[in-house]
Amino acid sequence: MAEETNHRSITESAGRAKQKVLIVDDQPLNLAFAAAEIEDICDPIQAYSGEQALKLAGIEQPDLILLDVQMPGMTGFEVCRLLKQNCQTAEIPVIFLTCMDEEADEEQGLNLGAIDYIAKPFSPAILRARVRNHLLIQRQRMQLERLAQCDGLTGVANRRSFDQVLNAEWQRLAGIKEPPGLLMIDVDLFKGFNDHYGHLAGDQTLQKVATTINRQMQRAHDLACRYGGEEFACILPHADQGGAKDIAESIRSAILDLRIQHAPSPVSDWVTVSIGAVSIVPTIDKAPDTLISQTDQCLYQAKTGGRNQVNPG
Ligand SMILES: [Mg+2]
Q1: pTM assigned to the model
Q2: Interval 156-208: pLDDT, tens
Q3: How far apart are the CA of 1 and the centre of ligand 1, in A?
Q4: Which residues hold their Cβ within 5 A of ligand 1, which is an ion?
Q5: Which of 100, 102, 226, 268 has the greatest CB tally within 10 Å of its CB?
Q6: CA of 77 relative to ligand 1 center, distance in Å
Q7: Which CATH class is domain 20-148?
């Protein structure tokens, strides 16, 4: 589930619904009051206990948590500590709501990873202003995270997210004995293209190639990445050898169909790509590097074999 969110977040637009705020308080009146105060700036979710808060935080993935400190059973401090220990909830910002206003408590809360502290009884205006500010920061943080996963020139996933996603998929698929397919794609004679047409035209070509590759990623978990320079890679979870080869072939012909002139190329009048396409079932004892180097080898053979072709393993 977490993987799915990550994959999608790379390519999906930033547009999204109202941000969610989880409010945790053992007093129903406090909960209703806080929710009513902020419901026009966010989508409030209510929890009456620490246990319920932990459960809802995992399911709802709120953008912010307002957490009462004094609750029977699990205290807010304990809830915060558990939230920060769980990788699914560790990044969600927490604000403590409490009537204890001693410095030591505030310090303890902040040390546990809370970003702010609001003393009860709070004024509605202060609550709204703080929530609004923190939601804005959270939205900007998510945008930065998305940008950090994207290649600046082409907008597809970058090398960093390629490494992360391939590693995660490798582990996941090893567990269910299913293969990932991998494509390594190289724009043929790209140095010659740049020398002839200039780097600006080269950049535009890389953008068109990236967009075209991305368009062929039609299944939910397929991911196109810029691997480096004029090289792209596609991670294709659950694609067997035949499936990987078919997707590679559709990419190769779609690039040719762009009809981007490439005068110095001896291969074709147009820009073409060579593709290595490999699918293997991972085992935990092997690293995904095995798949990368096999696919790289196939790409090399596609190039030495005359370019503008797919070489399956
Ligand atoms: Mg309380």
Answers
A1: 0.70
A2: 999 999 999 999 999 999 999 999 999 999 999 999 999 999 999 999 999 99
A3: 33
A4: 26, 68, 70-71
A5: 226
A6: 12
A7: alpha beta
Ligand 1 centroid distance, CA of 68 (Å): 6
Catalytic residue, chosen from 37, 106, 169, 230, is 230
19 neighbors 135 (Cβ within 8 angstroms): yes
Is-contact 227 161, C-beta < 8 A? no
230 is catalytic: yes
The answer to whether residues 45 and 191 touch, using CB atoms and an 8 Å cutoff, is no
CATH 3.30.70.270 at 159-312, yes or no: yes
Determine the distance separating the centroid of ligand 1 and the alpha carbon of 46, expressed in angstroms. Answer: 14
The two structure tokens encoding residue 175: 């567990």
Residue length, the chain? 313
The alpha carbon of 38 and the centre of ligand 1 are apart by a number of angstroms equal to 19
Model pLDDT for residues 55-68, shown as the tens digit of each residue: 999 999 999 999 99
Number of Cβ atoms within 10 Å of the Cβ of 209: 25
Q: How far apart are CA 238 and CA 244, in angstroms?
A: 9
Distance 19 CA to ligand 1 centre (A): 24
Domain boundaries, the chain: 20-148, 159-312
Most confident of 41-55, 94-108, 132-146: 41-55
